[in-house]
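Private note to self, pasted from the team thread so I don't lose it. Backbone tokens:
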């Protein structure tokens, strides 16, 4: 989808300088601002939101936020979400590695009528940077986070990086 095209542009056209990039700059460049952000701190204080993981299954299995529901990105199916989360007014927070894929999924949720959708600013990378726990597929706390690729992995600063499981 959009991420694949953007990655192609990054690597073939050299649009992004590795030395000058940061999560805020990447989000500013790649996101449209169609889904409001929520900070890690604000999510910590939010009462019982649905937390949706918009990463690939392999990434989710390495680690995820506690109680997160995997919805994927390439495999995302809005009909499954509608079945799992019928209350469209309940808060929903979507996250991915840093917040790019989760904006796309958040847009689909908003288009489906969900009224309170937020995109976790900085994603799971920021979550770990702020010192919060993540859990593996056995619900055991872990320091591992799937970094998606070497390009994106440079933004993951406070976890054990995993590239392939």
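Design output:
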């Amino acid at each position: 989808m959009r991420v694949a095209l953007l990655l192609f542009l990054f690597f073939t056209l050299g649009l992004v300088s590795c030395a000058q990039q940061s999560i805020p700059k990447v989000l500013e460049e790649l996101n449209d601002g169609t889904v409001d952000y929520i900070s890690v701190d604000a999510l910590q204080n939010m009462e019982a939101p649905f937390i949706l993981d918009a990463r690939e299954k392999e990434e989710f299995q390495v680690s995820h936020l506690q109680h997160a529901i995997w919805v994927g990105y390439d495999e995302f199916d809005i009909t499954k979400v509608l079945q799992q989360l019928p209350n469209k007014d309940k808060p929903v927070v979507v996250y991915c590695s840093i917040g790019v894929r989760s904006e796309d999924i958040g847009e689909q949720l908003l288009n489906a009528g969900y009224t309170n959708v937020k995109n976790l600013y900085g994603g799971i990378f920021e979550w770990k940077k702020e010192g919060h726990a993540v859990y593996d597929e056995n619900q055991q706390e872990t320091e591992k986070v799937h970094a998606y690729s070497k390009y994106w992995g440079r933004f993951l600063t406070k976890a054990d990086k995993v590239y392939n499981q």
